[in-house]
Structures are given as C-alpha cells and as structure tokens.
Amino acid sequence: MKKIILMSYLLLPFIISCSTEVEEYMDEGTITGYDTRECSCCGGFFIDIGNITYRFYTIPDNSSLNLENPDFPIPVKLSWKMDENACLGDEIIVLSIERK
User: Fold this and answer.
1) Do 72 and 33 meet the contact criterion of CB atoms below 8 Å apart?
2) CATH code of the domain containing 25
3) Domain count, the chain
C-alpha cells in the first residue's frame, strides 16, 4: 500500500501537467489564401507565421473563425504544432485560432 501511495505522489506532477486545453495563443499569423495547386498533397489554406509559410487543412470546431467565404488576408492569433504525418512538410495542425 505504501508503494502505491508513493507512486501516486511521484506521478501527480505529470498528471497535473498534462492538459488537453490550450491556455494561450503561441503566435500571430496571417492566413493568406487557399492552396489551389493540383497535387495529391495540396489543398487547405496558406498561413504566414513569422517569415515561414505553412499550410493547414482544418481549424478546431470550437473556433469562432469562419473560413467558408473568407476575405483574405486574415490576421490571426493561434496555437499550432507541426503535423507529424505531413506529406509535403509544410503542414501544421491548428490547435486554437481566433481573428486578431
């Protein structure tokens, strides 16, 4: 029993630090338009973050940003990560996003 209690105390900081919620936005960027190229890995939207252009395919369902009839460019604040399954290497996954 003492071992279980000790393990619980040792694992507690790791459990607390794991959160699925994004607490604040990492970066500012500009959505510049659609990727209209015709290739198997193309599509989505272009976004400039810093001096690098990335692409993303979707935004989180809880986002208030509407990309159905956008008026580009769109300045945004976002949290993101590189897509581990990227086809061309420039794809990101948007974790949270809102209009700036």
Assistant:
1) yes
2) 2.40.50
3) 1
